[in-house]
Amino acid sequence: MMMATDIRIPCFDSEIIVKRSAEQEGSFAVSIQGTANPLAFGNELATFPSEEQAADEARHFCTFYAKARERGYYLKDHAFVKPDFEDIDVAVVFQPDLTEEQKVALLRE
Fold first, then answer.
1. pLDDT value of residue 6
2. Which of 16, 32, 53, 66 could make an SS bond with 48 (beta carbons 3.0 to 4.6 A apart)?
3. Domain count, the chain
């Protein structure tokens, strides 16, 4: 069932948004937008074939994002960045073959 409005998930200092992709017809985009600038268009992170999958992935991304921020990482373009540590590509967060625990294990204290 298609929803008429975007799905918005409050997440740490941002909002994760699921909406129809403007780039890929029939798919849904997961984006992040800072709450400090609600008029911005946000940063598209990934697209998925269904709204349900995109919403599930958005919730998983929010969990990872909050844990990353708590450990001193910030999102820059399409990577989680922390000084003196290797960047973590956002695509890793959306890899279906990794468990939540494996993804969080990538974060360094």
1. 86
2. 53
3. 1
The pTM of this model reads 0.86
Domain of residue 42: give its range.
7-104
3-state secondary structure the chain: CCCCCCEEEEECCEEEEEEECCCCCCCEEEEEEECCCCCCCCEEEEEECCHHHHHHHHHHHHHHHHHHHHCCCEEECCEEECCCCCCEEHHHHCCCCCCHHHHHHCCCC
pLDDT band of 26, cuts 50, 70, 90: confident
In a domain, residue 109? The reply is: no
- Predicted confidence at residue 4, as pLDDT, reads 45
